[in-house]
Amino acid sequence: MRWLEGKKIVLGVTGGIAAYRACDLVRELTKEGAVVNVVMTKAAQEFITPLTLQTLSQNPVITELFNLISESRIGHISLAQSADLLIVAPATANIIGKFASGIADDMLSTLYLATRAPVLIAPAMNEKMYLHPAVQENMERLRSRGVCFVDPEAGELACGDVGIGRLAEVSKIVEMARMILAPDYLKGKRVVVTAGPTSEPLDPVREVTNRSSGKMGFAFARVAARLGAEVTLVSGPTALPDPPFVGIRRVRRAEEMLQALEEVVPGSDLLVMAAAVADFRPKEVSREKIKKEGFSGVVELERNVDILRSLSSKKGKAFFLGFAAETEKVRENAAKKMREKGLDAIFANDVSRDDIGFSSDHNQGTLIFSTGEEKEFPRLEKEELAFRVLEEISGKM
Ligand code: PMT
After folding, report:
1. Which of 74-83, 121-130, 173-182, 320-329 comes out lowest in average pLDDT?
2. What are the tens digits of pLDDT across the range 232-252?
């Protein structure tokens, strides 16, 4: 899904060694459909040429406030007014100070004062500069005016010091841009999402689990955060990296998933139960690795805890969305599960297909509400499906 399609983004690049990473940022933003106009300060041009960013953005790069040619092509006031978002990355202590004090002595600082678009700043500098009270106070001042920051990361800095001050990952800056520009259907809501399989141990090396990759739940968590929610993701074992701007709790067994949910579900507004909880677990867990020799060949299983049923007493005002993994009579079986588990809605997906469901990047199915309403979703990338389902549900919470 191209979250930034058609969005006009002005990218301010200032003079620090991380200026070269603006190239990746321009590529990522344009790849997602944004129209990017780059503005470079004089110092930025010491690190990277305007031609590089002009080639990548396919738009003229603006370097001077009083340049007759660029001003006639794209006036600074019209650029400020037409922007959907102003990003400054990397942002030096100097530009942060200018923004905070209202100094407008070059193109970028003038644009900041002239635009009413949201502003996103990704600082990058030496740790001592970053932690200096002057810089921190300037950032606080900007925050209080609604400016968003993507905090720098800790690690080895260009100057050789180790500490905080490295420009945030480009993917994190892009994610924040998506969050700022996405609709805010879930603003102020607390959303809990589960993802992945649970894994039930048989001995120290073997376990009973299933093919869930976590992709569906992770997509819901990312999208809910973009739509403005405060998101907690409770995930079984998956190979997926932690999504940015989402609180994550990693668990293994169904019992652990239930315990985590008992802590985070009370007071929440929505639970999206996309996890494939193992229905059975080995009755006995061996402390030692079970030897081949003398093994009877039989593993006795017992029913696992039903998480959704166990959570019903903690539901409160929360909207519970379950998932039904079915291979036959998909709609009917899903509707039955929704009633039995006391859910507000259930997403019925056919897990007998290879091109949707388990491990696939796509999914398809029917969203069934306890009111009897139903909505069909065609085969979509999981992120787009999550967006459409959340859009549907947000009107009913
Ligand atoms: O992770 P992916 O690879 O992206 O795959 C996505 C998915 C196919 C796993 C997902 O779309 C999905 O269908 N998740 C639900 C899987 C499942 O456990 O379905 P079920 O029909 O067995 O359970 C119905 C509901 O009860 C589910 O919301 C489930 O989380 C919940 N449940 C199940 C068993 C149990 N012991 N406790 C539960 O709470």
Report:
1. 74-83
2. 999 999 999 999 999 999 999
Cβ 321 under 6 angstroms from ligand 1: no
Q: Is the CB of 236 under 6 A from ligand 1?
A: no
Q: How many CB atoms lie within 10 A of CB 249?
A: 17
**152, 122 Cβ separation under 8 angstroms:** yes
**Which residues, including other chains, have CB under 8 Å from residue 319's CB and lie 6 or more apart?**
269, 270, 271, 344, 345, 393, 396, 397
Around Cβ 3, how many Cβ atoms within 10 Å? 19
- Equal fold, 8-181 vs 190-394: yes
Listed range (154-168, 235-249, 309-323, 346-360) with the worst mean pLDDT: 154-168
Angle between helices 93-101 and 107-114 (to 10 degrees): 40
Q: Is it the case that residue 70 has pLDDT exceeding 70?
A: no
Give yes or no: 159 in active site: yes
Indicate if the pLDDT at residue 225 is higher than 90: yes
**Contact, 213 vs 239, CB < 8 A?**
yes
- For the chain, which residues make up each domain, given as ranges? 8-181, 190-394
Cβ contact 350:376 at 8 Å: no
Please tell me if the CB atom of residue 110 comes closer than 6 angstroms to any atom of ligand 1.
no
Fold of 190-394: Rossmann fold (3.40.50)
Model pTM above 0.90: yes
Atom of ligand 1 nearest to the CA of 274: 14
Of all protein residues, the one whose alpha carbon is nearest to atom 22 of ligand 1 is 325
| Smallest CA separation from ligand 1 atom 33, residue | 277
- Ligand 1: which atom is nearest the Cα of residue 323? 28
Mean pLDDT over each residue of the chain, to the nearest integer: 95
Please pick, among 159, 302, 329, 352, the residue that the annotation labels catalytic.
Answer: 159
CATH number of 8-181: 3.40.50.1950
Helices 133-144 and 93-101, packing angle to 10 deg? 50
Candidates 239, 235, 265; CA nearest to 252 is 235
